[in-house]
Amino acid sequence: MAINKIRNNNKDLLVELVKARFKLRYNNSILGFVWVLLKPLLYFLILYFVFTATGLVKNDSNYAANLFIGLILYMFFQEGVTFGMNSLLDMANVILKINFPRQIAVLSSLIMAMINLSVNFLIIIVIAMVLKFHPHLLGTLYCLGVILLETLLIYGISNFMSIFLVKVRDLTHIMELVFQLLFYASAVFYSMDTIHGNTGMIIRLNPLALMIDAARKGFVLNEITHVPEITVIAIITLIIIISGQVYFNRHIKKIAEYF
Amino acid sequence: MARHTNTENEPMISVENVSKIFNVPHEKKNSIKDYFLNPFHKTKNEAFKALDNVNFNVKKGEFIGIIGRNGSGKSTLLKILAQIYAPTKGKIVINGSLVPFLELGVGFNPELNGRENIYLNGTILGMSRKFLKEKFNEIVDFAEIREFIDLPVKRYSSGMLVRLAFSVAVQARADIYLLDEILAVGDISFQKKSLSKMEELLSGGATVVLVSHAVASVKQYCKRIIILEHGEVIFNGDVETGLNKYLDMMNK
User: From 3.30.470.20, 3.40.50.300, 3.10.560.10, 3.40.140.10, which CATH number describes the B13-97+210-251 domain?
Assistant: First the structure.
């Protein structure tokens, strides 16, 4: 019976939303999808140039690899949270007309960010192959585990942010500044090991900096680092995900009235 | 949406003591600047009661019409039935799958082509991709846009767009349909075609709630009508008595 096909389609809706968003994002540009590759590469070149030319970075023979991994993990966080934050507002016209599981909107934005991350990760693998760099299994698995943790954290945060943005539109501007700060405070273009002192504490306690440092030391040096800190971040992430779900489900019923 | 087993007597839709109150702020305050400029000044909210203690049931296979003046709460009620708004008080129970036709072409994107919009709009309306694939040719032929299917819909004429949107929507199969007016769109020949398609869809034992201003279509299709006035149900009964009352009201 055709009736059974109605509303058993959450997965199909998710697929179509991701496809549509993807096409829209890269539709009208000449290079299209190549931008996903180009953006981090160009960012990388700028930062690499600035920090090697000025001599601000010394004694790091793996600087290029460290920088690139830091950069794509930072960009993943920024894109993931930004997409997630906009997910409900972007679909306002649909949300006002049809009742579909709203969580799908948030999920589709997370998947968008994950696709970009996977493409960027492919670049790392290609470069590693060209340079005949052999990543170790354990370190790579640790790196992937940390990325999974980052993904979950993004999802948890998105559950809050998507609702916040509908209620307080200024969040877009505020988040621009927050990301600016986060970029400098996340050990993207420098090593955590060089950070000392009291103000450095902010960086040493920044979850994103810790995750970036743990991921790249795992992948590049095959070192398993920051295990206690990562465990704490995992617990915090779990709490954020659970409370995010509760918050989302409580507020989503009334969200249509705020558009 | 959970599907419950439905016995003959159990209503498909039951609306129990539903009230809907909107808080209408005098000045809209959703930027932080407003809070900073005026941190102690609480926004005065005016409570607007869009629906006031509404009760009714709709049985399986019933075709009911909801009529009333502009601003009487019809659209709010429809949105509550579609579960887009939550009632402030009371509750609604829906026994079965429901498709709202509040607007055609929900989710249509001008940059995407006809084909992509069929899948996007169709899945938003609750159809599966497999189902849409099976119905794809039927949709395209019914809309009479085969040669334009791979063109972005921003290049479509408004007639083509509305034909495509109608053709997708009419494929939705559900136990309950919510309609904002009887949908007959396009030029005269397509209007005829779409009207008979719509009737075909609605006549197969479906439960229908129609909100309309068109007395003629209410008379033609509905078996029962509900009149809303200032958010309250002031009439719930047979069509003839109801329409007379409604016309009297409007002439006052």
Answer: 3.40.50.300
